[in-house]
Design goal:
heterodimer, A: 262 residues, Rossmann fold, B: 72 residues
Chain lengths: 262, 72
Amino acid sequence: MFLPVSASLRQFARAVTADRLAGDELAGAITAENIRAGKPPAAAKADLFREFILKWREILDANSRPRPFSSAEYVRSLGPPPSEARLVLLLNDICGLSQRDIEYVLDPLSKPFAELLKEGRAVIARQREERKALIVEDEPLIAADLKDVLENMGVTVVGLARTADQGAREALKSAPDIVLADYNLDGQKTGVDAVIAFQDSHQCPVIFITGYPDDVLKGEDVEPDFVIVKPYRPEAVQAAVAHCLDTERFFAIDADSANGDL
Amino acid sequence: MSNEKSSAPEKRVEKLQIMVADSELAMIDDWRFENRAASRSAAIRSLIYLGLELTKSDPDAAAKLLDQLDRA
């Protein structure tokens, strides 16, 4: 299953810019332009993604230096864009676009689609034993399955937590590089509560696994880096984890960690 | 691949934290919606730009506004 179109674009934009705010701005700008142009809000998914890519390329390719404080200046300061192979991987495995749609969205592709997807998948296969993941999931079967999916890509699972409180404690104890959390844990607290509880002391990307895709990625304060919709495909989880672990991110205010080499 | 770590130019963005009162945040958000800014962050950057431009183009008016701000 996949996210609704607008949330899917938002997620893709965040992945491409490796930043929640920048991604939301860009996705918001595309949506706003569509509304101004009188296009139907639920335009075809591929068209929305295509517009996003065109806008993004336009900003990155512009010769002139953008004005200070403009959105273009912001986007251009965000650092290098992901490679074509990674874009293909994101669109295929996470956003669920067909080959035809991806060829349209990323037109012109520098290599055949299959070759790019293979390159993208090769990135996932890179070993990451030194990277630690925490799983916050109350369903033991799903937790065990996620553990397998992660270990198959060489990521070390340092903890399986069943409640938000346990998840928060475990995150502080084992300082994972990535957290996979069920959005709706059993009981009163949710995966969001776990993230709120640890994010001040430990910052790392968070991937939510949810059966309720309409409830997430609405631009609120605590939001995941990725949302994978249940029932998930292992490739989607792996692509999201690989993207989060490999992408240079900046969470903190100080420049050292902002520019840290991941 | 173009984004491999060794050759990647570094990002030149800093995240800042600013403290504002609830009522001030409401003003920022109102401005954001009136001006169709893509996000709160974009709205704040636009407002900073406007402030800097006003300081340059009409320093007297800017100084007067600042003066009022401190006295209020």
